[in-house]
Every structure is written in structure tokens, then in C-alpha cells.
Design brief:
three-stranded antiparallel β-sheet; mainly alpha; globular; binds manganese (II) ion; about 210 residues; 8 helices; about 50% helix
Amino acid sequence: MPFEVPELEYGFDALEPHIDAKTMEIHHDKHHAAYVAKLNDAVAGTEFENMEIGDILRNIGDVPESIRTAVRNNGGGHANHTLFWETLKPGGPEDIVDPLKHAIVSQWGTIDAWKKELEQAGATRFGSGWAWLVMDKDGKLKVLSTANQDSPLMDGMTPILGVDVWEHAYYLNYQNRRPDYLAAIWKVINWDVVGKKYQEALERVK
Ligand code: MN
């Protein structure tokens, strides 16, 4: 089948105690796997089965209406989680490094102010969704949230960092305390990877 769940490059327990091993296992092996299986079902026998998921989502309006909702939800789920696992990779510097750091400080004043805005975006997303740092078409950074598995790619923006705020991402460890999960997420972000995503986004808008 064309789309596959990427192998985690670290153990399920690598993000303990901030994200527990059981949550990681269910999230990766069950939730992400289900999005991929349903995406593959939806695109089977169509031109979309051989396309990059990012290209499909950037042009979601070109997907036939009969499968568009399935591709939006499950293709979005696949792309969002693939980025999520990558940016949670253990290791790297403890906090943001230049040039992304400089860009964030220029826009938000301080790193803490930016983090608070992202946490707020996640905490106030009603129901399920994601909180994002994205780059828009003009190269400007933005913090926003999306509902369900909607990807910023569908609105012409490039995701740099995404935080999953579906209950399945935190409920075993944090129960209803989504803000506590959001405050802890900073302990497990790989800033090398996020910095690389920023550089790639810059290349894209050039
Ligand atoms: Mn998820």
C-alpha cells in the first residue's frame, strides 16, 4: 500500500515522564495506523495513491468529493502525526536555536510569550485538534489551531511545529488537564528538527 506509518526513531518510553509509553504505543500503533489504513482505502485505485501526502493536502479541493472528507481526515491525520513524531524526537538542544529563535523573538518579543500563545491556542481549541506554529505564504510565522485532523497545508501554510490536543494524545497521563500536557510538551520537543522545518519552510516561500 502506498502510505505507511513511519517507524518511530525512538522507544515508546523515550519521552517519559512527560508523555508516557502506553500513550505513545497506542497513539502510534493504533491511532496513526488507523488513519493510514483509512487513507489507503480512500485512495485505492486513484491517482492520489502515488502522490506525496503534502501535495494532496495542499490541493485538497482537487480531490473528488466522493473521497474528499476521508482524505481530509485521514490524510491530515497521517501528515500531522508524521510531523509530530519527528519533532518529538529525543535529543538536541534544550531550547530553540537561531535562526528560528531570532524570528520568534522578533515577532513575539520573547520565547515565553510565543510558547504561551501556542499553549493557549491548544487549550482553547474546542473538542479535538492541533495547535501549530506555521509559516504563511509570505514567510510570516503564525500560531493557530485547527479542528479535527485539518492540516495548515490545506490553507496554503507550512506547518513547522504541531501539538496534538486530541484526548488520545494525553488522557492516560493527564486526564482532563490539557493545559498541563501543553506546558510539559516543551520538555520533549527536538529543536534541531523544528529548526530544520523552519529552514525548509523558508525555502518553500522563496
Ligand atoms: Mn493523535
